[in-house]
Every structure is written in C-alpha cells, then in structure tokens.
C-alpha cells in the first residue's frame, strides 16, 4: 500500500501522531508517495475544525483518514461526525484531552466510534495498535458499483407480496425506534462536494439499517441506499431486485423497471448476496444499528460495503447452528439477522434488542 501524509511537519500533538503513523507505516513496508499518485492507497490529512476541507481523491480506492483536534465532553460522536462527512473521509481520528490524557476517537461512516488513550511511555506499542486498527480498513475492497439492467418484468413494476412485506417491515423497524433519521448530507456538503461524493461512492444520501427478502432462486428484493426505510413505496427507487454480483467489476447487478431512474441498492447488498446464495433456507435478512447480548461478532470493524465485511459475516452465519435463524454482531456497528421470514425475525428480536451498540 502506498501512503501520503498531506500535512507539513508540525510541533504539536497532531504532529507527533503524524510522525508516529509515518514510522509505523514505514516499519510495515508501506511506501510513501505523493497526493497525485494514481496508486495512492492511504491519504492522511489534518483538518481545521473552523474550515474542514476534503482531500479530492483521484481514485475511489484511496482510503482517507482525517486527524482533527476536538473538544472533550459528552456526545463526541454527535459533535465529530459532521466533520467526517464534510471532509469526505473514510475515518476521522478526533483527538481530545480528557483528565490530563490525550484520547483518539476513531469514527467511521457507519457510526462506529471507539477510542484509544495515548501512552507516551510506550509510543511504539501505541502506534502499533493504531496501525492494527487502521490497516484492515484501509486495505478493504469496496463493492459499491451498481449495474442497472432495465429488464424487470412489467408485472413487478408495482411490486408484489414480498415487496409489500418489506415495506411493512420497514415501518415495524421505525416503530421499534431502530431507524435513525437519514443524515442530512446537503446540510454539511456543498453541491460540488455532494457531486464528488456521489462520483466516488455512488452515495446520494446516508441512512442506517437495511432489509431484504428472497424473490426467486438467489435473487432478492432489498432496500435502497440513503432512503427512509419506514416509507418504502416505489420499486426501483425505494426497493430494488438484486440479480447477481459481478466480481470483475466488483458490482451488484440489479433488475429495474424500464420507465424510471433507479437509485442505488444498499451498500450491504454484497453481504446479503453471499448469505442467500449459500443458504437456501434463508428467506429474509435485516440489518440494524442495535445489539443483542451473547451474539457472535466479527473481529474487525470493516467498513460497510466491503467484500471483507461481507465475507466475515457470511462465515459467522455458516458457523451458526441454524443459519436461517442467525444473529451476527458487526463489531462497533450493529447486527445482521437472518430468518425464514421477516415475521420470524421480528418474533425473535422483539424484547431482546438494545439500541446502544457497544464500542470496543
């Protein structure tokens, strides 16, 4: 992996963090380069809270980490998350000083938030731990592209019993208070930055949670990205039919109506595709930003929409005593729940779900 530090040397604590990151990256054999390198894999920048600016990637394969000095106190995630969005970052490291100690808050687009206290007595071990948290994220492969094929049969343009069940399930999730409001990107990004975000990641909106249900064979209906899941109405806009995955293009293949402009499917489609393909008994999957006690969990908080996260979740479903009734934890993120029907999933989670995801 080639990396670039996009800030000059500085003599404050962020300068110490930059120097430590450079040292540990070099130690592990990563190659320093400049911001214009088309093969740039990791870009690390420092942002000013008064004027946070994005680094404009040349490739969507570049993972951007932003360092920023922040204020201590409660609701760090609420205060810091807008800076992650405004800098178009994959990871925000928000540095605070609390009780005389420096603390690094790691914040991801999926609302992951965990922290690491700075240890001056053993800087080498500290930056090694930072590297171990950063490396798997920076080297993940995103499956974000969609290929829209306008071949959805006319009789499905208005949906069917399965899509109506998905819409009802979205309303039930909202009634359980498991659907945070979509994040208002337009309030934090300029029209130019919004266009850049969509060009890189196909993101036109940001919302949390998703759900799907098997259609025929390994095809499945799934909620779209960036929508209010409690109001899914239009096929191709709110609910899409996923046909397949193209590994060469790293893209999901979607069957859409020929008479409308489609939206992108949820970024977790690759994960659902793996599970449906391997387990014919699985008929529905729900993902929520919540938790349940005693569930097996992924070891690394890979970003949503990555092949690595999908593989990790699929492996845990495979190990489950009953893959059609699995509840899998996604570290620092939420739950993926399989079922023999959407109703089956709700019967198993109601009364057991916890809205707060533990962060480690």
UniProtKB/TrEMBL annotation:
Per UniProt, which keywords does this protein have? Lyase, Metal-binding
The UniProt entry, under InterPro entries, shows:
Aldolase_class_II_sugar_metab, Aldolase_II/adducin_N, Aldolase_II/adducin_N_sf
- Keyword Transcription part of the UniProt annotation: no
Pfam families annotated for this entry?
A: Aldolase_II (PF00596)
Start and end residues of each Class II aldolase/adducin N-terminal domain: 192-357
Metal-binding is among the record's keywords: yes
Q: Which PANTHER family match?
A: 3-OXO-TETRONATE 4-PHOSPHATE DECARBOXYLASE-RELATED (PTHR22789:SF0), FUCULOSE PHOSPHATE ALDOLASE (PTHR22789)
Protein name, per record: Class II aldolase/adducin family protein
Q: Which organism is it from?
A: Thermaerobacter composti
């Amino acid at each position: 992996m080639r990396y670039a530090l996009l800030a000059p040397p500085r003599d404050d604590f962020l300068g110490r963090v930059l120097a430590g990151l450079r040292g540990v990256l070099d130690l592990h054999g990563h190659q320093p380069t400049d911001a214009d390198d088309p093969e740039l894999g990791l870009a690390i920048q420092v942002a000013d809270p008064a004027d946070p600016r994005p680094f404009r990637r040349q490739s969507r394969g570049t993972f951007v980490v932003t360092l920023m000095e922040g204020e201590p106190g409660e609701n760090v995630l609420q205060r810091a998350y807008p800076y992650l969005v405004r800098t178009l970052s994959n990871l925000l490291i928000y540095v605070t000083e609390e009780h005389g100690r420096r603390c690094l808050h790691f914040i991801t687009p999926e609302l992951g938030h965990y922290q690491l206290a700075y240890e001056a007595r053993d800087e080498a071990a500290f930056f090694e731990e930072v590297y171990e948290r950063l490396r798997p994220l920076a080297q993940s492969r995103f499956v974000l592209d969609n290929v829209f094929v306008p071949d959805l049969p006319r009789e499905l343009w208005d949906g069917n019993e399965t899509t109506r069940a998905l819409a009802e399930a979205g309303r039930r999730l909202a009634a359980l208070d498991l659907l945070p409001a979509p994040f208002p990107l337009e309030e934090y990004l300029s029209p130019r930055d919004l266009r850049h975000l969509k060009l890189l990641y196909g993101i036109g909106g940001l919302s949390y949670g998703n759900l799907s249900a098997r259609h025929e064979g390994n095809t499945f209906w799934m909620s779209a990205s960036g929508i209010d899941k409690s109001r899914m109405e239009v096929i191709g806009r709110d609910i899409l039919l996923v046909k397949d995955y193209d590994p060469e293009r790293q893209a999901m293949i979607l069957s859409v109506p020929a008479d409308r402009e489609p939206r992108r499917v949820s970024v977790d489609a690759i994960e659902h595709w793996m599970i449906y393909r391997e387990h014919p008994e699985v008929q529905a999957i729900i993902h929520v930003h919540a938790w349940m006690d005693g569930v097996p969990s992924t070891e690394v908080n890979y970003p949503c929409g990555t092949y690595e996260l999908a593989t990790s979740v699929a492996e845990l479903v495979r190990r489950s005593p009953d893959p059609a009734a699995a509840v899998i934890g996604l570290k620092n993120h939420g739950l993926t729940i399989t079922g023999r029907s959407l109703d089956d999933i709700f019967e198993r989670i109601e009364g057991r779900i916890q809205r707060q995801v533990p962060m480690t």
